[in-house]
Amino acid sequence: MRHGGTSVRRTARAPDSLRHNRDFQLLCVGQGLSLLGSGASAIALPLLVLSATGSPLQVGLVEAVWTGSLALACLPAGPIADRFDRRTVLLMCEAGRAVASAVLAATVLAGSASLPVLLAAGAVLGFLTAPFNAAVLPLVREVVPESRLPTALAVNQVRGQAAYLLGPVVGGALFGVGASWPFWLDCASYTVSVCCVLALRVRPGAPPGAREGWWPSFTTGLRFLWRQRLLRRLTLVASAQNFVFDGVYLAIVVTIARQGVSGLSVGTVTATSAVGAMAGVLLAPLAGRRLRPAALLLATGVVCAVLVGAMALTSTAAALAALLAGCALAVAVSGSVMTLARLRHTPDHLQGRTNSTIGLLFMATPPLGATLAGAMLEGIPTPAVFLVFGGLLAVLAAVSPREGTFRTPGEGTSRPPGEDTLKSPGGEEGAPEHAEGPARPRAAAGAPPRAEPPPPPAATSQIPLVNEAGDTRTG
Fold first, then answer.
1. Cα distance between residue 33 and residue 312, in whole Å
2. Which helix (H) or strand (E) holds 54?
């Protein structure tokens, strides 16, 4: 309904038990299968290009375009997620990706999958994926009670890692049967996801608040993120890590593929990262209790640098698989900092724009990493490539946020007189631009004060090699 020119959403109270939360389970099933298909096509793509061209540089170019289109689409994705009904956004994106995957599969089956066709398909899928990523997390908040949100995020990550574990194996096996089969699977998974979203009972409607112009809405999330010191530091470091890990991933695939192994073997090696990430999901709560956030980030950053550097000492598939799994474990353990900081330190009316801004920064760097790795693999020995990336990870570990940057929600939220705040289009006050805690809703006149929910444990959900929306390998 409408009240004072602002849309007011009315949704049924979500069940406290996630197991009995029908809408949450539908999202889990639909997105889990969607991630499975994405993982299958993700491993098939470099194998397809490498088998057709034999050039690691062209593999890097295709990967760069697929990821770069996703990064560019993040610019309008946030305003779309904050302007329109997020359920409708998911439906349109998943239906569009199903059609695009079907066209790509048919083209591969007909033997017409030239380099321009692959680049065009990557651009279309990227531009449809970005709005989906910006809208899916806010929709999870609609169907899950606040008290269950940390657990829901952890379930989300376990689901993503399980799909990422099976996806490359299934994709590699299907690629051995026929090059088009992984892309047909991807199409089918998007179709199932559409059915699950259609079955949702929640009808959130368009997010409330007055509408601002498109260009100001592009920059709102960036301005909010830049003025949040913790989110800014975490995002910049994670974005640089994405640059490195995309190059490492490509280097591993090319190294193994050059040995003449089957697509199933390549998929199995890359899938081991999901095994490590799932182990990291289980270890994260213990690590969060034993280490402070800054120490956790430093330790996991150093571990990743050492493991990637050690890849220079071997070219065997088993050893590279074990080292990759170790990196995934470390990233999964440390990733809770970004996920929970993003959700709990961002006002609801800025969720889509902030998510898309972070997504833009996350996705802007991997194309460069893949391109750099492809160029280096053609010009220098493979061990030197791993040493370069290991050194970059060591630098990032050294510049990770220190303890003074971290404060629990509610600490330091008071601001001196005159400190700027970020306002929503209707004049609604958002989070203090320099505060480290989330915006606090103002109680209605005469209403009793409500107790704030306690902050979640330091490490209850992770951002492993698949993000919350499931469409990137790192972040």
1. 35
2. none
